[in-house]
């Protein structure tokens, strides 16, 4: 099964993967070789630390490769703007009661980061917004009750 991912999310993973493979992996291999030269491996803290780091880097490489192989990369900038909220769009919404505006980009689960205003496509807010258009009012169930938001603007950034 393929999972949606923004073009920016896929590019960020590819940059990290390249860094891990071309910079960190050779550094760790070198550190292991140098630690081996120090002698007895049983009590060689440098060797064990380098091997542990190698295990973490290799696990991260496998994780990223798995995510990329299962990703359906969506470039929202290549999709015609209709004013409708779809995966990858950046949405400005305003709380109907307070007029407080907030901007979110709707992204895949792996990319979601509320601090960066990136909402998972599976979050309650995103699910309420998907398919709606600029000017529409949507009701979002929150722990504090139902909150109504007006969709102010939909952008394909």
From TrEMBL:
PROSITE patterns: GREAB_1 (PS00829), GREAB_2 (PS00830)
Keywords tagged on the record: DNA-binding, Elongation factor, Protein biosynthesis, Transcription, Transcription regulation
GO terms of molecular function: DNA binding; RNA polymerase binding; translation elongation factor activity
Record Pfam families: GreA_GreB, GreA_GreB_N
Record domain Transcription elongation factor GreA/GreB N-terminal: where: 4-73
UniProt-listed Gene3D superfamilies: Transcription elongation factor, GreA/GreB, C-terminal domain, Transcription elongation factor, GreA/GreB, N-terminal domain
Top-level division of the source organism's lineage: Bacteria
Domain Transcription elongation factor GreA/GreB C-terminal: 82-155
BP GO annotations: DNA-templated transcription elongation; regulation of DNA-templated transcription elongation
InterPro entries reported in the protein's UniProt record: GreA/GreB_C_sf, TF_GreA/GreB_CS, Tscrpt_elong_fac_GreA, Tscrpt_elong_fac_GreA/B, Tscrpt_elong_fac_GreA/B_C, Tscrpt_elong_fac_GreA/B_fam, Tscrpt_elong_fac_GreA/B_N, Tscrpt_elong_fac_GreA/B_N_sf
Role according to the record: Necessary for efficient RNA polymerase transcription elongation past template-encoded arresting sites. The arresting sites in DNA have the property of trapping a certain fraction of elongating RNA polymerases that pass through, resulting in locked ternary complexes. Cleavage of the nascent transcript by cleavage factors such as GreA or GreB allows the resumption of elongation from the new 3'terminus. GreA releases sequences of 2 to 3 nucleotides.
PANTHER family to which the protein is assigned, alphabetical: TRANSCRIPTION ELONGATION FACTOR GREA
Family per similarity comment: Belongs to the GreA/GreB family.
The protein, known as: Transcription elongation factor GreA
Organism: Halopseudomonas pachastrellae
């Amino acid at each position: 099964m393929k999972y949606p991912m923004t073009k920016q999310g896929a590019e960020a993973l590819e940059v990290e993967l390249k860094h891990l493979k071309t910079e960190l992996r050779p550094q760790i291999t070198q550190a292991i070789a140098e630690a081996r030269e120090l002698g007895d491996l049983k009590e060689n803290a440098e060797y064990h630390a380098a091997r542990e780091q190698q295990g973490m880097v290799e696990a991260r490489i496998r994780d990223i490769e798995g995510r990329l192989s299962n990703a359906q990369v969506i470039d929202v900038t290549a999709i015609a703007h209709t004013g409708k909220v779809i995966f990858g769009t950046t949405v400005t919404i305003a709380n109907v009661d307070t007029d407080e505006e907030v901007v979110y980009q709707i992204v895949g689960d792996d990319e979601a980061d509320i601090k960066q205003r990136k909402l998972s496509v599976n979050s309650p807010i995103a699910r309420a917004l998907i398919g709606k258009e600029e000017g529409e009012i949507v009701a979002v169930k929150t722990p504090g009750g139902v909150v109504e938001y007006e969709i102010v603007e939909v952008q394909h950034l």
